[in-house]
Amino acid sequence: MSQAAVDFDCIVVGASFAGLTCATALARTGAKVVVAEKKADAGDKLHTTGIIVKDAIDQIALLDALPRALCRHIGGVRLYAPDLRHIDLAAPGYYFLATDTPNVMRWLAGRASEAGAEIRYQTPFSNAVRDRSGFSVEGIGTTRFLVGADGPNSRVAQVVGLGRNRKFLFGVEHEFEGVEIEHPGKLHCFVDRRIAPGYIAWVVAGVGITQVGLARRFDERAPSHSIMPALLDKIAPVFDFRGRRPTSIRAGLIPCGGMVSPAASRRALLCGDAAGMVSPVTAGGIHTSLKHGLAAGHAIADYLSGRGEDPSRAFVRSYPRFRAKRALRFMFDHFQSDALFNAFLATRALRRAAGLVYFHHKGAFDPADTARSEDAQTDSPLR
Length: 383
Description:
alpha/beta, FAD/NAD(P)-binding domain, D-Amino Acid Oxidase, Chain A, domain 2, eight-stranded mixed sheet, seven-stranded mixed sheet, 10 helices
C-alpha cells in the first residue's frame, strides 16, 4: 500500500483508545503507520475512569485477548438519590468491566506495535501543511492520511480547520489503595445537583484500587479545589474516605456536546474525544472510540488501496449523532431537581429511565432480582 512519494500511509496523532485501534487496524493491512504521542507512555496522565461496557466486549473482537488481570467484573448499579436513599439496577446478562486503565492502554499500544505500527512517544503534533498527496507534518514526515485522536482540545482539529468541542463536563477522580467497600460488585452512582450539577458522582471497586470521582458542568468561574472535599463529605454516611490520601488523581475535560462539525475533510478525520464521540448523557466514550477507531482504520485502508472512497465523506456519516442523548443532556442541564429525584426514586418511570441510560435499552430488574443477578455475576470470568 505504501508509496515512495510519502513517508507514511497514515499519521495518527494520539495514543488514545481511538488512535491505537485505528493504527492497529491500518497496520494489519500492511499500511505504514506512525502514532505520534506527546506523552512518554500510553498509560500516563489519563483522564478516564476506564469502565468498559458489555457492548464493547461483545462487539470488538480485539478485546477478546484483554488480560483478565486488567479487569474486574461489575454486575449492576446502585443509584443514590440526593438524600442517599438508593435503588439497585441490573439487566439480564449485562455487566461492566472496571479496568486497570493505564495498563489497558499499554496493552493496546502493544497490539498496535505487534501489528506493525510505529509509536513515537514524546512527539507532540504542532503543525501540518497540505500537499498533493496528503500532509506534511512538522517533525514527523509526509503522510497520505492524517487522523486526529488527540483528545477533546484537538490540535489536529485546530490546524486542519475541523470542528472543535465547545461544551464540556469537568471530571476529577481520586484513587485509593488498600480500601475495601461494601457491595464491590456494583457501580455506585450518586446524584446531587449541588456537588455534581449536570452529571453524577461515583464509587467503584477497581483493579487493586477504589475509584471515587465526579463529573459536573464545566464552569471556568467555579473553584475546583473544593469539589472533592464536598463529595467526600456528602458520601461519608455510605463510604467514608475523609482523611485518606489518594494514591493518584485524574482530572480533565469531557466533551458532552455531541459530534463536532465538520469531523473530517479531504484525507483527514477526527476520532474519539477529538470528534466529540462521547455520550452526552453518560459521558462514556470508550466503546464508541474503540468501535469507530477500528472502523476508521479499515475505511482508510480501503481508500488508500483504491477499494473505497475517501472516508471523510461516507464513513464519517456513520459517526454517532447522539440526537436523543443531546436532548436528554439539555433536560438534565436545565431541569435537574434534587427534590424531584428524591420523590421519584422508587417509581417505575425513574427505574425505566435509569435502566435505559445504564444498560442501553436492556431494561432493569426489580431490586430482589438485582441482588440475585449480582451474586451470580460478580465473580464471573471475562466473557
